UniProtKB/TrEMBL annotation:
InterPro entries: Nudix_hydrolase, NUDIX_hydrolase-like_dom_sf, NUDIX_hydrolase_CS, NUDIX_hydrolase_dom. This is NUDIX hydrolase. Residues 7-131 form the Nudix hydrolase domain. It comes from the Bacteria. Keywords: Hydrolase.
Length: 137
C-alpha cells in the first residue's frame, strides 16, 4: 500500500484508555496479519476529529464512555498502511464488554508487563512512551 493510498482512505483513530494500572485492549474477530489484539479503534467519519472518533469507537465497541485527553501522535501504520491517530482517553463511566460482537471477540485490561504477549511487535513510540509513564504509577 502506498502513502497516497493511506491518505485517500479515511484515517483510523485509536483510543488509548488507561485505568487502574492497565490499558484497554480488544481482540478483533478477524485479525489483520499480526494485528489480533489492539486498542479500540475505527475510521474517522465525516467531519469528526480524531478525538471524537476515538470516543465514539470506544462507546460502540466496548460500551464505555471516555473523554479524550490528548492526541499522542500520528503515523501510517506499518502493517496496515492506514493513517493512524492515537488518542489518550480517560474513563468516565462503564466497564468494558464486547458491545460490537460482529467486530470483537473479547476485551482485556492489560498490565504493562503483559503488553508484549498481546502485541508481538513494537508499539508506536509515542504510545509506548505514554504507556510507560501511565502504567508505572
Amino acid at each position: 500500500m502506498t502513502e497516497q493510498t493511506a491518505q485517500e482512505r479515511p484515517g483510523i483513530a485509536a483510543a488509548i484508555v488507561v485505568q487502574d494500572g492497565a490499558v484497554l485492549m480488544v481482540r478483533r474477530r478477524v485479525a489483520e496479519g499480526q494485528l489480533s489484539w489492539q486498542f479500540p479503534a475505527g475510521e474517522i467519519e465525516g467531519t469528526e476529529t480524531p478525538e471524537q472518533a476515538a470516543v465514539r469507537e470506544t462507546s460502540e465497541e466496548v460500551g464505555m464512555e471516555v473523554t479524550a485527553l490528548k492526541v499522542l501522535g500520528e503515523r501510517v501504520h506499518p502493517k496496515t498502511g492506514r493513517k493512524m491517530t492515537y488518542v489518550a482517553c480517560v474513563v468516565e463511566s462503564g466497564a468494558p464488554y464486547v458491545a460490537d460482537d460482529d467486530e470483537l471477540a473479547e476485551v482485556a485490561w492489560v498490565r504493562h508487563a503483559q503488553i508484549p504477549a498481546y502485541v508481538p511487535y513494537d508499539l508506536f513510540d509515542a504510545v509506548q512512551v505514554y504507556l510507560d509513564a501511565a502504567l508505572s504509577r
